[in-house]
Each structure stands twice: as C-alpha cells, then as structure tokens.
C-alpha cells in the first residue's frame, strides 16, 4: 500500500540548519531549554502551534471522481508512481480531527477558492453546503480566491454574513443560511469608490499569550480570470505590496508572528505529492517564487493555492533565509500540516522551527458522521436534478485530467457550443472556442451511483461546466480571429500558454519551438478546410468570460454584433442528449485538431 508520506522533510531539515546559521541567536536552544526547563526557568519559553492548511476545495463535498479524485505518490514497495483515491469532505473532516489530537494549539487555515466552480451538490445551492461543511470541520480563517468572486461581491458578502439567496430564497423550510463561522480575508481587494477593503485584511488569534496574525490575499490578476460582473467596482492590489503593508501594521500592534494566506501558487518539478523541491526551492517555479522572495521576513510561513499543485518547499526570503511555502493540491485530497514554535518573549515565529508536510486524505478511514448527515441532506434535495441521465459515453472523456494541450472533453464542449449556436436565429456561429480553465472535471465511464456505466447524469455534466456562463456569438474579422489564436501563446499568456479548445471545423499547427505569437503557424490555419481571410467577417461563439476578453484574450472583446445565447451548461446537456443514446454512445474525440510541434505544457 502507498504510504501517507510527507513533503519537504529533507528540505526542511536542510533549511533549519541554514536558517540557524543565519539567525544565530534565534536558532532553537537545546531540547531541555526548548521546553523551558533549562537555567532554572519555570515557565516555557516557547509555545507549539500546529497549522492545518487546505486550498482550492471548490465545493467538492462528495469524493471527486476520475483523475480529480486521486493523488500521485510513490509506492514504497515498487518505487513506482501510483494514483491513490483521495478526497471527500467526510474523510477530510476525519483526517483533520485525527491530526489535531495531541496538539494543544491547532488552527485550520485555507488559501482561497473554497467555493466556486463546485459540483452540483454544492453549486446548485450557491455553495451554502460548502460553507456549512467548513464550519463543521473547524476552519478558522481563509483568504479569498478568484472563484469567491464568481457570483459577485454581494454574494461573497452573503457567504460571510449569511442570509437566504436574493433570488432563490431559502432551500429548506425553517432553515436560514447563517454564513461562515470563519473570517474571509481580502487584504488586496478594495472598493474603487471608497478605497476600503471589501472584507477584513487580516485576523489575529491569541495563542496562549502570543498573538498570531494571518494576512489573506488573492492573486492580483483576478480580474483577468473572472467575469467582469463578478469584480465590478473592485480593485485588486499587488500581493507583495499588500502583505508587506499589513505586516508592518501588525508589527506596530505588537503582532510579531505572521502567516500569509495567498491565493497564488507555483509549479513543482514533479506531480508526486511528496516530491522534495530542495532547500533552496530550486524544484519549484511560477508566480509564487518571486512573491515569496519579496515578502517581509517577519512573515514566518506562507500558505498558497490557485495552481492546484502540492508542495511543501523552502524559498528564500529577502534576506536569503529559507521560509516555508506550501500548497495542498485541490478538492480536499490533501491537507498540509505545518508545525512551528512561537517565542513567548519576542512574540515571533521561531523560523528554524517551522516544518511542513502534506498528507493524503485517504478513503480507508471512518467517515465523519456529522459531515455524512450534511451531505445526505443536500444530496436528497439535489437528487431529482442530479441523477437525471443526459447522455451516454463509450469511455472516459478527459478534461481536467488530461495533460495534453488539446483535451478530448474540450473538443466535445466546443462542438456542443457550435452545434447549439450555428443556426441563424441562434447567432449563426461558424466556429467555437472554449477556455481550458473552465473545464472543471472529466466525464467518467464508470458509474458514480445507480445510473449505470457509461451514463452521463446532469450532476456529472454540471461538475464539468459549473459556472453556467451565458454563451455569446460575436463578429470578428479574420485578422482578429488569427489574433485570438496568437494570444494563446503571447502577451499575458506567453509564459504560461492558455490553449483554447476548438470546434471540429478548425485546424492549425502550434510550433512551441518558436516564441510568442510566432508559435501559431498562420499559414496552417484552416476553417472548414479554407484559409482564413483577414478581411472577411466570421461569427465566433464563446462563453461570456472569454467573449469579454478574459484569460488574456482582448481580441474577443473587440468583437461586434453580440448575440447572447443559452448557457454553456444547457448547450452541453442538449448536445449530449441529441448526439448519444444507450445504443449509440459518444466516443472520446481524437483531439487531433491542433498539431503541436515541440514539448507542450498543460495549463488547464
């Protein structure tokens, strides 16, 4: 059997030695003194604190299916990488409660995207079930993530403060949504009119006489990956500038132990959850590296998210001293345990004491009965909709779980959008595009309930496209259409390409050996077998997020003659129903519309 393992234990040990040399007198004393019994002292000098961290839960109350429900780890018996089933809030609650045993001081924290892009059992109820579940498992504090803004700032405030949905009302007679028992932190999210933060910038917890402050931020680029309506009237500040500002404010208040909760992350060199990225952080790249290197050294630990990766790394702070930076993958499949000591004399985190490890949320432990009851309650409410069959497939059709730039499920979604919007009265679409980040799951052949193998239920389709974005058809010139393809690999997307999923009538070559816009081989582009005419007009279908220029595609926003169609989810379900049956199921698309030259990179 695979072991639970830990991430970064070797790198932590190296970092402790390096930090001790640099910190000098701040290094931990001998064991006897560490417990406050040396030199005649009667009171402990240090207080132990355990932090349990999660991120990017995305409302996955039920155990996630397909590749979204596994974690890669090394099997000690064979030395090979294996995919271990993981996740499910009933198991997460058990894991966290077991982890807290024996720890007098334990706080559970998160780094954003707790809600949003959620499967149906949570998403159908505007994520009220997930907030209630987080209350049950004992979440103490979280930063906001970009997906907390999917339904706008007013809805986020409702998640914090409670109250029934303004349109759908209360879901059960006699029950009113009470909101989060924990604070949402949004230090870098301010009102354009007032300049004030939308939510609290930080939260302070007194741990047996030592004040510990938590600063929460989301990524500065949130407006680029959320619909315009979701962030209307808000400004998103720089992560480093914001954290350093509030770290200074906390220090002025006598809070010297500080932890940053950041909804931005990194890309480890290995997808094995307990990969050791090295004491100097050489095994991790991505935005979090520069962020971590510039955050005030007073911040003793950094908990991150957004990239859905797992790591427990040491990245040097501005003084060159290694500092713990962690992420627990996504969907509740992992949690991070961070152990540290608080100096009762200075009120600071003893940096050489900080150690971190990721642990798998395995499904071979007892379910937490209170979370089972919560899940059963909402599952019964959702069942009439969730269990309805909408289509049939011959095998798994991978989207989120695909490592390719062109994903079979992405192609299927784009085909569904073109089919639903090609009629003249529906917009007259000639081609359709789907953003890869909007594909939130796989279609799995194996039955997840009583529906039978190969049956796609409404709930499973909802898990794939949970945003319910409205579709748009716009007119773009041929030149603008080419710009759309080039913007996948240039501009803000040059470093991390966002390769759009395309309908089956569009083909082209992507040469990743080249740089920037030149990666798109313009002469290779064919729509319905013909080259693109730069001066001609084309009707292009995309969801409202892409059509508004989201994900770094301003060419979409320049389109004209907009027609708003049905939601992406409605089109997807309609296509599954009309193009498949029990006797004629859909096979996975070949995913051969984009010819890729060179080594690709999965950025879904």
From TrEMBL:
Keywords: Hydrolase, Nucleotide-binding, Signal. It comes from the Bacteria. Residues 51-309 form the Calcineurin-like phosphoesterase domain. This is 5'-nucleotidase. One of its GO terms (molecular function) is 5'-nucleotidase activity. One of its GO terms (cellular component) is outer membrane-bounded periplasmic space. Residues 1-32 form the signal peptide. Residues 63-83 are annotated as: Disordered. InterPro entries: 5'-Nucleotdase_C, 5'-Nucleotdase_C_sf, 5_nucleotidase/apyrase, Calcineurin-like_PHP, Metallo-depent_PP-like. It comes from Kitasatospora cineracea. Belongs to the 5'-nucleotidase family.
